[in-house]
Every structure is written in structure tokens, then in C-alpha cells.
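Per your request, structure below.
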């Protein structure tokens, strides 16, 4: 177990020393005015340079990441970020371009932005794209602000956004932030949107339906055409939470399904780095009737040159400085261009295959509610183990001891004790087999030695935390003895 750096401190030991000859003969007060002097020395650890280096290198090796292991994290598409993405993002022409430099001197960067918009438009079947939003949730907010501006542009006020009970928590939060009231619509026994309930809920006060398809259970909403008809007949818009497009690439398109707005998470589907709070990118796509409301500036191409149009009177305004998180856009562009159209559809085919393969291996041991062939992810329930005192998070924590990052737990909310598993296309069959084997071992432990789960993880520098206390009483201060 790695000690704290403070515990390694030895009085007087130094990592760096400075020449002091020039100070000889001066008092401290002559060198540093009194007001800048400390009364108590800073409580810094006193260690040598190599002790410092080794300490932090060892801590860095305690990290888990996509470069070290498999992330079956449902609703999050944690796929491998190919290193060519990083190489291209570091090209000086991209990494050192300044957003305020003259447009004539940044045509290459603007070309990449323009082309990425064209590509995302092709992939999604949406007429217009904005790359500005910095995350999925901000893409949703942007979409909701566009929805509001659209209805106002039609000379009407609509107050309600309808959202299924299986939705990601950011959906109601975004709708609320944009000034709408959220109305929930139920899922039916098959885990799909309840069409009868939808028809009752949607009316002339409805601004939009926010839908996730495939939904958070990994199931495709087969009645999507009927859903779109109900919503459009009421004059409302169809919003797709396209954070995870991993099951759709090259197979079907949100625009073809009838959606009017969609956001994508480049940091999920398009492999760019993800986690730790960003930066990410959550571009928005819209149908042609909504293009006037997109954030400005809008990039355009005229006579082979790229220019930015800020004269957009109906626009909702900016949602990010300059053009969004440009470095992330470069990575997504690289990823997409390297795979090409055939490669992208292979991504989705393999993601769906991986999820169904893993589901088949697990379903005899972990109940799959609303069982049907899934898309890119699936949900199992640990509810049956409650009587043994085992919850979904105990299984998740135990997986850490087996060397795996845990799946998403307790989401979607409509499945009690949910474990949401997403094995992206970048994982091999051997990895999936090893994960399934660990899950089966844990299943045995639930019957034979449940205490092993309750204490887990046992193999990490940090054991099981009291998560509520850790969140409510965060204390990262070192108190010197
Ligand atoms: C991840 C996710 C979001 C939010 O994306 P962020 O980039 O984390 O803001 C929204 N909806 C779904 C379904 C997601 O999986």
C-alpha cells in the first residue's frame, strides 16, 4: 500500500536546491519584505526528486483507464481511443492555431470543422449541425433552447416536454433548465415506450418528446414511426438523445426515423477521451426548418473559402466560446475518416454482436428483465439477490477485485438493482469471455460466500467507501500531526 507523500517526508530533505551565494550577507528582511513572509512554514512534504517521481508514478499505475482495461459501462460507450487521434490532434497546425487569428490563416482548421459537420449530417440524416456544445447535457440544453425558439417563432408558447421514465437524468434536467415543465411517460412491460400513455400525454401544450433510441435498456423502439406521428400531429418536435449512437452508425439514421433534433456525444460514439469531467463535445443536429435557430457563428463555404456567419437574427446565440472544444473535434474527425463508411457500420454491427454475445453468456445466471435481442447494451437485474443481502453495487465492487471496471449500476431507474452492461466493438472475444467468467464466479460467490462481495474491493489502494459521506463531507486536506 502506497503511503501518503507526507508520511514519506524527512525533515530537511530536498528535491531541488537553489544557489544561495548571492544572498550571503543579507538578512531575510532585506531580501523579502515582511508582509510577504510566512509566520508558519508551509506544511510541504520534504522528499527527494526520485522519491517524488516514484510516488506519483506508482499512484498513476493505480489508475484504471481504457488503455489498461475493459469498461463495460452501460450508457457511456467507453471505447478505445485510437492513438492516431492523439497524433493528429497534436499536429502544430491544429494544436497551435489561435481562435482569434485571421480567418485567412486558419482555413485548415475551419475546413476540418466544416467537413466534420458535413460528415455528422450524413451519419445522422440531419440537415444542420452545430459543433459548439461541450457535452451531451449541453447539447440537450442547446436542443431545448432551439425547441423553445422554434415554437416562439411559430407564434406560440408551449410549456411541456414529454420524457420516458427510462430516460437519462440529464434529459429532464435540460428541459427544466430551458424553462419547460417535464411530463413523464411510462414504459410498458416490454421496456418500450407505452404508446397509449404517450397519446394521452401529448397535446397542444407539448413542445417536444425527448426519446433515446435504442433506449436505455438497449432496446430499439420498434414503434418509432407511430411515436413520431403522434408527436408531429400535435405540432411538437421529436428530440433524440443520441449520446450513444453506437448501435446506429451506417444502419439507420435519426433523420430518417423522423427526429427533428439530436445530440451526439463525440466522447462516446466517436471514441474521443471521456471521463474526469471533460473536455468533451456534444454536437447538435437539426432538421432544415430549425437551422435558423442554431447557435452562431455558423460556418459556411463560399468559393473554396471558409467563413463564419454571425448575422443570424433567429439564433439562440452562442453556447460556447469560439467553435467548441476543437481538439476533441479533431479526434472525432480522425476516427471517422480512418474508419470510413464501411468501417463505421462495422462498428455498430460488432457492438451489437458483442452485446448479444455477452448477454447470452450471462442471462442464465443473472435475470434479464424485458428480455429480447438487444442493441449495443443490455440490463440485468440483481433484485433476486436482495434476500441474500446482495445489491447491484456489491457485484460491481467485487468485479474490481477480478480486474474489471464495473458496469453502470441502478440505472435505468425502471429496473430495480440494475446492472447496465455495454461491451463496445473495440473489445475482443477473449475479453468478453474473461468478463463473463468473472461474472459467473461472482454468481457462485453470491450463493456460497456472499461476504466476499460485501467487503469488496479487497485488492485496491482504496477500499469500499461510504459513498454518501465521501460526497457530503469531502475532505482532501492533509492535517499534519
Ligand atoms: C452520457 C449520456 C448523456 C450526457 O452526456 P454528458 O456528455 O455526460 O453530458 C445523456 N444521455 C445519455 C443517454 C447518455 O448516455
Amino acid at each position: 500500500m502506497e503511503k501518503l507523500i507526507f508520511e514519506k517526508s524527512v525533515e530537511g530533505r530536498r528535491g531541488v536546491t537553489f544557489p544561495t551565494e548571492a544572498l550571503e550577507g543579507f538578512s531575510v528582511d532585506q531580501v523579502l519584505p515582511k508582509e510577504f513572509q510566512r509566520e508558519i512554514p508551509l506544511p510541504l512534504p520534504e522528499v527527494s526528486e526520485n522519491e517524488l517521481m516514484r510516488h506519483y508514478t506508482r499512484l498513476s499505475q493505480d489508475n484504471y483507464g481504457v488503455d489498461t482495461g475493459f469498461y463495460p459501462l452501460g450508457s457511456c460507450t467507453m471505447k478505445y481511443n485510437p492513438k492516431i487521434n492523439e497524433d493528429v490532434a497534436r499536429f502544430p497546425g491544429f494544436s497551435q492555431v489561435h481562435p482569434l487569428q485571421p480567418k485567412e490563416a486558419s482555413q485548415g482548421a475551419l475546413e476540418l470543422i466544416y467537413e466534420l459537420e458535413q460528415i455528422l449530417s450524413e451519419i445522422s440524416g440531419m440537415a444542420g449541425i452545430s459543433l459548439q456544445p461541450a457535452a451531451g447535457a449541453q447539447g440537450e440544453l442547446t436542443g431545448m433552447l432551439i425547441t423553445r425558439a422554434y415554437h416562439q417563432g411559430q407564434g406560440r408558447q408551449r410549456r411541456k416536454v414529454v420524457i420516458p421514465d427510462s430516460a437519462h437524468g440529464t434529459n429532464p434536467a435540460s428541459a427544466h433548465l430551458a424553462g419547460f415543465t417535464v411530463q413523464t411517460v411510462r414504459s410498458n412491460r416490454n421496456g418500450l415506450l407505452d404508446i397509449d400513455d404517450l397519446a394521452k400525454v401529448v397535446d397542444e401544450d407539448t413542445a417536444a418528446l425527448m426519446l433515446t433510441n435504442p433506449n436505455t435498456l438497449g432496446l430499439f423502439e420498434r414503434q418509432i414511426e407511430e411515436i413520431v406521428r403522434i408527436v408531429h400531429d400535435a405540432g411538437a418536435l421529436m428530440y433524440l438523445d443520441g449520446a450513444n449512437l453506437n448501435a446506429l452508425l451506417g444502419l439507420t439514421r435519426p433523420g430518417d426515423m423522423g427526429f427533428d433534433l439530436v445530440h451526439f456525444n463525440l466522447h462516446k460514439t466517436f471514441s474521443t477521451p471521456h471521463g474526469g469531467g471533460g473536455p468533451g463535445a456534444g454536437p447538435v443536429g437539426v432538421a432544415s426548418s430549425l437551422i435558423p435557430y442554431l447557435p452562431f457563428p455558423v460556418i459556411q463555404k463560399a468559393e473554396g473559402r471558409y467563413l463564419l456567419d454571425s448575422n443570424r437574427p433567429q439564433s439562440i446565440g452562442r453556447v460556447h466560446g469560439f467553435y467548441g472544444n476543437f481538439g476533441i473535434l479533431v479526434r472525432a474527425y480522425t476516427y471517422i475518416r480512418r474508419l470510413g463508411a464501411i468501417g463505421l457500420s462495422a462498428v455498430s454491427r460488432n457492438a451489437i454482436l458483442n452485446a448479444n454475445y455477452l448477454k447470452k453468456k450471462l442471462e442464465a445466471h443473472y435475470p434479464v428483465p424485458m428480455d429480447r435481442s438487444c442493441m449495443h447494451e443490455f440490463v440485468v437485474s440483481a433484485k433476486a439477490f436482495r434476500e441474500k443481502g446482495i445489491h447491484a453495487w456489491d457485484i460491481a465492487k467485487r468485479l474490481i477485485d477480478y480486474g474489471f471496471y464495473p458496469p453502470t449500476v441502478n440505472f435505468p431507474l425502471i429496473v430495480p438493482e440494475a446492472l447496465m452492461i455495454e461491451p463496445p466493438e473495440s473489445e475482443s472475444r477473449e475479453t468478453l469471455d474473461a468478463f463473463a467468467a468473472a461474472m459467473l464466479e461472482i454468481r457462485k460467490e453470491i450463493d456460497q460466500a456472499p461476504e466476499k462481495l460485501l467487503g469488496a474491493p479487497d485488492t485496491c489502494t482504496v477500499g469500499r467507501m461510504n459513498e454518501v459521506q465521501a460526497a457530503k463531507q469531502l475532505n482532501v486536506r492533509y492535517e499534519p500531526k
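DSSP finds 15 helices and twelve strands in the chain.

Regards,
D.
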